Amino acid sequence: MSSPVAHPADLLAEVDVFAGLEQELRSRIAAAAVRRSYRRGQLLFVEGDRGDSLLVLLSGAVSVFRSAPSGERALLSVVRPPDVLGEVSILDGSNRSASAEAIDATTALSLSRPAFLDLVHSQPALLDAVLRSLGGLVRRLTDQTADYVFLDLAGRVAKTLVRLAGAATGAPVVIELSQTQLAEMVGGSRQSVNQALGTFAVRGWLHVEGRRVALDDLAALRRRAGAPS
User: Which of 14, 40, 102, 148 is the most buried (most CB within 10 A)?
Assistant: First the structure.
């Protein structure tokens, strides 16, 4: 017998942006949102598209990237629940500044900009929540920019793996990310990222399992990234 499907308002309680809101407001957000499903490899939106909605991830994983005219990608981040996409566009009404692709089967709640603005006018607490999320995005991008100046490629690989591991403390921590995607994220070639992973594997810090990287020694990776262990 299958488990009952949680009410969207209850699902929003697990999303960082909305966790601190009153249940009544979460119910209003859920009622105004549309549930959407994306298959692996499907684009949620493309850079330059009209930024007309905020997406709340309920399951799956999404890569956020920029594309060069040559077709090369720069992977900016991998977003997983509980998180949101589209904070910038829904606030300023501008076009999407990046593209987003489902890297696993993904479900999300889509809240249109008009619905969002209507809710903000009556419930300023919603704007506070989105601004906190936007602040976290700005801090993360600032940190990534500094990494290109102060860290070598292997250091960026280590720091990216640590960031993707989040608050996990056990071992191994499994990261669902191919070496190509990791190379796009750190700004290096697949070969150079493969070499860095190979060095880390020899030292016993991780091991590669196909499209997954299992982190065996987070403390060592944090030290290589220049972060407190």
Answer: 102
Q: What is the dihedral of CA 17, 18, 19, 23, to 10 degrees?
A: 170
Task: Give the Å distances, CA to CA, from 86 to 18, 60, 113, 213.
Answer: 15, 17, 10, 28
The enclosing H or E element of 223 equals: helix 218-224
> Region 24-34: what's the mean pLDDT?
88
User: Is residue 1 scored above 60 in pLDDT?
Assistant: no
Are the beta carbons of 6 and 29 closer than 8 angstroms? no
pLDDT reported for residue 2 = 39
pTM: 0.70
- pLDDT: which is higher, 37 or 25: 37
Residues 174/214, Cβ–Cβ less than 8 Å: yes
Query: Rounded CA gap, 109 and 16, in Å?
Result: 14
84 Cβ neighbours under 8 A, 6+ residues apart: 15, 17, 54, 55, 56, 57, 130, 133
Pairing, β 173-176 against β 84-85: unpaired
**Which residue in this structure is represented by tokens 């949101």?**
84
SS3 of residue 53 by DSSP: strand
